[in-house]
Amino acid sequence: MIIKKVHIDNFGRLQDKEFSFGEGLNQLLNENGWGKTTLSIFIKAMFYGMPPARDNVKNERKKYMPWQGGNFGGWIEFAADKGDFRITRVFGKTPEGDSVQLFNLKHNCEVPLPKEELGEWLFGVGRETFEMTAFFPQTNFTASINEQISAGVLGLDKFKYDLANVGQAVANIKKEMLAIKKNIVKSSEIERLKRQKSDLEQDISQANLHMADLQQNIEKLQKQNIINAQNLEKEKIRLQEQEKIFASQMQIENALKAENEKLSNLLLQKGDKNSKKGYLIGIWAVAFAVILSGIVLGVIQTISWLVAGVIGAIITILATIVSIKYFKKVKSGIASGEKSKDLRNLIKNCQDRIQELNVLLQSFNNVIIPNKVDYELQQEIVFSSKLNLERLLAQKESLGHQKERLLLEIESLSLEIEQKETNNKMFAERLRIYELTNDYLIEAKDNVSKRFVGPINEEMNNLLAKFDMRGREFVVDANFDIKQSTHAGFKEFEYSSQGYKDILSLCMRLILINQVYKNDKPCIILDDSFVNLDDKNFEKAKLVIDEFSNKIQILYITCNESKRIY
Fold first, then answer.
1. Tens of pLDDT along 4-13?
2. Which long-range contacts (CB under 8 A, 24 or more apart) does 430-439 make?
């Protein structure tokens, strides 16, 4: 393929710029900062567009959005095996806002776009392969390999998409293997579940033993309760028989009550007589005291004897009158003396009757109360036994629920263990298949690669011989990785100086271009790719580039006068 013209409307800092190129080596020399990297990115974007990128460093769309505004894009004209075309692109803020047109310059008409990206349609490789082969950025163009490049190098173009997916397939297999390993339950976890199940089974055994003991105790209590109920019934019958004489007890109590009331009345009558006799004696005592006082006063001449005698006579008269009245009553009471005697007899008889009734009541209580106490005691025994039976039955019911719960847990654990063991077997089988598949894919790839390692190394040695490598020896392994051969073994070439890495990457990329692009080869874009080479090796690089430009168009962009090729 030959790029003929490039027109930039607006792209980064470049505005309304047009460039023309011819076959072979094309060199652009301008001052630093004029936009050489912008031009190389624009050419790549014309063929492959600009995909979205979350990383701002890699976000070319955001980086090259026109500073001055205007139409974001341009066009490029080229000649290829498929014909002469012009690609016109206008970029939006997102890929959804892009527009692209393909013109056939020979027929001067727009043609339908292919299903794949235009660069892949033209060169047969994707963006990544293009960037790893024909696109040499200034900052880093270290040679590396993907599966699509491997397919091209191995001459398996018909299977390049299959081989390009080998790496992805291996990566997917490893990802699946990792996921399977995460899903496989560790044996320690299954053992833990089995121990937990065994503990629950022991709990079930203990519960069964406890339940058997409870059942025995319940049966004993049930039998004892029957006996207790029978005893209670006997006591009840005895008490009922004793209570039949309850009416006799009531008669005794009523008679005792009546006798007590009668005794109280008799005692009251006796008390009235005694109080009257005391009253008479009191009157005479006062009279005597007054007379005696008068005599004394007369003796001591406080008052005259005449006055004392008068006072004494008056008092004596009064006492005599009262006494006469009282003795009249006494006289009438003498007539009822026999009644007083009868009163005393009645009181004594009443007291004797009360004593007899108390003795009879005590005898009655001595018979009734013990029977009642025995009955109440038997009631307490029956009630306590029923409570114990209810408690044991409640314990049995609770233990039954606990046993059911344990059985459910054991069943759940058994299912879980069985499921995990089944899953582990399934995962183990799947893992074995994935591991075998992964090994077979890698082995197949290595076997195919090894067939081409020799020719690649021969071509690499021919190119490296044109540079000053100062006795250093480099080889390409079966994975197409460049390594330095030392007395201590092979060392990754990344540990070499940047100048040597650039030489090795240049040679490897030139080899890959010949191998990967079987028919139409793209233009090689060199963006100031030799800044790390010393003068001697730069001169060697110029010869290699000049020789290579006889077969492929090369666009070399630099801002350094000392790094110009011609």
1. 999 999 999 8
2. 430/180, 431/177, 431/180, 431/181, 431/184, 434/173, 434/176, 434/177, 434/180, 435/177, 437/173, 438/170, 438/173, 438/174, 438/177
